């Protein structure tokens, strides 16, 4: 409520953008409906539109983690381009987060604590109270005659964060009075080291990014494998983290990164496939490619109607046709193996050889549409035309990107 009060005051005296509020109803506590009603009354008093979002928690080992994941999924969905989401997390929350992450063996990014700002969805997340203690916030709330509402879960020792707040942290402070200051200073040092590693990852990405001009490949980010292999193992992982983050992917844990390293260190990477929550890394002869989760969609055979544009089944991209084509049976098929094509002025060749000569990676080949007319292969995605293809007709394939 204090953050809402401060922002309402700010917007009334300046030209700030209009406010709106979000309350996530987790349904975890008998008083959850009352808290939502309290938010409704408070926002009505300030004239701030409120959106109450009820969530169903996923089954996870930790209720706290499930609730957090649900909250941030709501935030990400509701944030529009240029929106700012302000959260009231404070210095005590930061301390608890640091200790939790240290106990879980977090890396530098985790041990730097919650960032003051970061991108979220189509907008940006800000934590303006992160340097202010809980006690200072409570004092300020009373001075502004605001009702202080305490979540009963904050005093429930069954929750790890509550136990840390009421048992572990007070004991640490009694033994080491400088605990808060020291831990927050540590987070600052770690954040600085993390920023240097981010700069190194950015430099390595600039040196090792593979920019492909091939129309079938240029939309996907790629890294050069020979250069990646020359880096030390820790530097490889640092680059991979930076590369995934730069493409908006969630960071995998150390175990998953090690699994990827083991795959491309074994030698041939033509069949490499590495899945994470929201992305898929695929190997080429000398590249690592980053595609959306699931990789290339599987092509589905279908008739080819006489239309200028056709969205292919299974989300396999777009076909564009131009010119005049003769009547007859037109069909889109996909590779099963052993396909041959004879182009004008050239001997009959296998599609496998054509793909190899053109540097088309193995993971893309099953998705290339093969256009058949009257049962004969006449075009390979518009890239190679058979000698018997209708001269007045042209086709181009644009993969899903």
UniProtKB/TrEMBL annotation:
Signal is among the record's keywords: no
UniProt-listed InterPro entries: Lysidine-tRNA-synth_C, Rossmann-like_a/b/a_fold, TilS/TtcA_N, tRNA_Ile_lys_synt, tRNA_Ile_lys_synt_N, tRNA_Ile_lys_synt_subst-bd
Domain Lysidine-tRNA(Ile) synthetase C-terminal positions: 330-397
Recorded superkingdom: Bacteria
Designated name of the protein: tRNA(Ile)-lysidine synthase
Entries under SUPFAM superfamilies matching the protein: Adenine nucleotide alpha hydrolases-like (SSF52402), MesJ substrate recognition domain-like (SSF82829), PheT/TilS domain (SSF56037)
Keywords carried by this UniProt record: ATP-binding, Cytoplasm, Ligase, Nucleotide-binding, tRNA processing
Reactions this protein catalyses: cytidine(34) in tRNA(Ile2) + L-lysine + ATP = lysidine(34) in tRNA(Ile2) + AMP + diphosphate + H(+)
GO biological process, one term: tRNA modification
GO cellular component: cytoplasm
Family named by the database record: Belongs to the tRNA(Ile)-lysidine synthase family.
GO MF, one example: tRNA(Ile)-lysidine synthase activity
UniProt-annotated location(s): Cytoplasm
EC id: 6.3.4.19
Enzyme class: ligase
CDD domains: TilS_N
Lineage: Bacteria, Pseudomonadati, Pseudomonadota, Gammaproteobacteria, Pseudomonadales
Nucleotide-binding is among the record's keywords: yes
């Amino acid at each position: 409520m204090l953050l809402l009060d401060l922002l309402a005051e700010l917007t009334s005296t300046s030209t700030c953008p209009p406010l709106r509020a979000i309350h996530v109803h987790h349904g975890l506590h008998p008083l959850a409906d009352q808290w939502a009603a309290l938010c409704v009354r408070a926002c009505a008093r300030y004239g701030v539109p409120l959106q109450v979002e009820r969530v169903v928690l996923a089954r996870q080992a930790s209720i706290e983690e499930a609730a957090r994941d649900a909250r941030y999924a709501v935030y990400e969905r509701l944030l529009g381009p240029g929106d700012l989401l302000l959260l009231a997390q404070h210095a005590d929350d930061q301390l608890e987060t640091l200790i939790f992450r240290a106990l879980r063996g977090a890396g530098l990014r985790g041990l730097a604590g919650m960032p003051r700002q970061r991108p979220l969805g189509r907008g940006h997340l800000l934590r303006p109270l992160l340097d202010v203690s809980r006690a200072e916030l409570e004092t300020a709330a009373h001075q502004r005659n605001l009702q202080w509402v305490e979540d009963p879960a904050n005093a429930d020792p069954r929750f790890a964060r509550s136990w840390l707040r009421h048992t572990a942290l007070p004991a640490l402070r009694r033994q080491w009075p400088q605990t808060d200051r020291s831990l927050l200073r540590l987070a600052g040092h770690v954040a600085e080291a993390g920023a240097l590693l981010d700069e190194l990852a950015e430099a390595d990405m600039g040196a090792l990014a593979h920019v492909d001009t091939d129309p079938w490949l240029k939309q996907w980010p790629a890294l050069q494998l020979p250069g990646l292999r020359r880096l030390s193992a820790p530097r490889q992982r640092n680059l991979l983290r930076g590369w995934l983050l730069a493409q908006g992917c969630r960071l995998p844990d150390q175990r998953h990164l090690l699994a990827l390293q083991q795959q491309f260190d074994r030698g041939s990477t033509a069949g490499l496939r590495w899945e994470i929550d929201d992305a898929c890394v695929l190997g080429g002869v000398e590249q690592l490619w980053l595609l959306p989760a699931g990789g290339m969609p599987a092509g589905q055979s279908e008739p080819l109607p006489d239309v200028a544009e056709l969205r292919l089944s299974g989300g396999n991209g777009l076909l564009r046709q131009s010119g005049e084509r003769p009547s007859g049976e037109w069909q889109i098929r996909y590779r099963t193996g052993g396909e041959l094509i004879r182009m004008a002025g050239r001997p009959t060749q296998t599609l496998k050889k054509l793909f190899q000569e053109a540097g088309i990676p193995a993971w893309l080949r099953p998705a290339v549409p093969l256009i058949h007319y009257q049962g004969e292969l006449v075009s390979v995605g518009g890239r190679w035309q058979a000698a018997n293809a209708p001269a007045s007709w042209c086709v181009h394939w644009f993969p899903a990107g």
